[in-house]
Amino acid sequence: MRSRKALEGFEPYEWETPSADIAARLGLAVEQIIRFDTNTSPDVPIRWLRDLSSKLDEIGINDYPDTSYLSLRKALSKYVNIPVDWITVTDGADEGLDLLVKTFMDVSSKAVVSAPTYSYYRTIAQTAGGDIVSVPRLKDFSDDIEGLLKAAKREDTRIVFLCSPNNPTGNSSKREDVIQLLEETDVAIVVDEAYSEFSGKTLVDLTNRYDNLIILRTFSKAFALAGARVGYTVASKPTIDLINKVRPPNSLSVVSLALAELAANDLETVKRNIKAAVQERDRCRKFIEQLKGIHVYPSETNFLLLSFEKLDPDKVHKELMKKGLIVRNVSKTKGLEKCLRFSVRLPEQDDLLLTALSEITKNS
Fold first, then answer.
1. How far apart are CA 215 and CA 204, in angstroms?
2. Which domains does the chain carry?
3. H/E element holding 269?
4. 8 A C-beta contact, residue 153 and residue 309
5. Which of 186, 242, 249, 342 has its CA 20 to 30 A from that of 27?
6. What's the CA angle centered on 142, arms 311 and 195, to 5 degrees?
7. Would you say 331 and 305 are in contact if contact means Cβ atoms under 8 Å apart?
8. 357 with 287: CB under 8 angstroms?
9. DSSP string spanning 115-132?
């Protein structure tokens, strides 16, 4: 059986190991495993789940959803202050990425990234038969705008992916840099704003000026609905119409759509959760700043990137894992050779991680 040539020598996205597998390997109970590696919210939206359960008889699980997802798009239109026709809803932001490469990339064409960044951009570009051009970030992890412009102006470039705030470095792209890319190139400039609620920054307002600006958003982070798998894309109407040409009709369930709509109409709860996450992030950062041998980078997200001056990050990662504390080991990524990343969770969970890091540094 023959597979596509694009998959020859292809390195797939590294999926997170299931908690049950980790627990079995470590001889721990699953309940002892705390996931600091997924950048999701520790808050379970009990209120929305209860409201959803009271509406189950209205949802119509036996029928397909409205393929335009109009009801949710109306709620999102109010949230981002953009016309309904400038929004398309997707099965998580990852389906949004899939639609973008199907819309803009040809075999052998290129997508540009500011590296290090979210590794799925490479995966999705290569599965489309294209490839990634990585432009190294500057020492402070800011975008090398001159390098990005040069790569974006290549004849075979179709997309520039910018994660803002960036995963895993935690910093945002500069507004003026994105505008320069929009004005000096004719390729799709995709800004992944998965963590924008934590930074309070967005470029959504620029979509009414630039047809080549595409914003990706998700309910997985600030809205605490990672398991529901709902994302959305914002762009000018002509661009959304183009993307909708390749969008499947029924990739979201009626249950996920209803849950997302409840969340989008309860922004006070979302804002409280964001405020709590930002406060907890800053508390963790202040604590780690006092630890010897660890540098903690500024963050506009719900996670922190740590750099270990003398300690081996692989050994630190293993020591934490023995305790059931699962952080993200990014030390094999170019530019992050000494780094681990962890997302903030509930204070009592974070305290376990902070205590473990303190003990590790004292014993080093």
1. 7
2. 5-44+268-362 (3.90.1150.10), 58-265 (3.40.640.10)
3. helix 267-289
4. no
5. 342
6. 85
7. no
8. no
9. ES--THHHHHHHHTT-EE
Q: Tens digit of pLDDT for each residue in 244-274?
A: 999 998 899 999 999 999 999 999 999 999 9
Above 80 in pLDDT, residue 330? Answer: yes
Q: Hey, what amino acid is at 100?
A: L
Q: Is the pLDDT of residue 182 over 90?
A: yes
Mean pLDDT to the nearest integer, 178-202 = 97
The token pair that represents 223 in the structure block:
């809205």
- The number of CA neighbours under 13 Å toward the Cβ of 363 is 9
| Span 261-313, pLDDT tens digits | 999 999 999 999 999 999 999 999 999 999 999 999 999 999 999 999 889 99
Phi-psi region of 224 (alpha: psi -120 to 50; beta: other; left: phi over 0): left
Q: Half-sphere exposure (CA, 13 Å, Cβ side) for 264?
A: 24
Q: What per-residue string of b and e applies to 6-35 under the rule 16 or more CB within 10 Å gives b? A: beeeeeeeeeeeebeebbeeeebeeeebbb
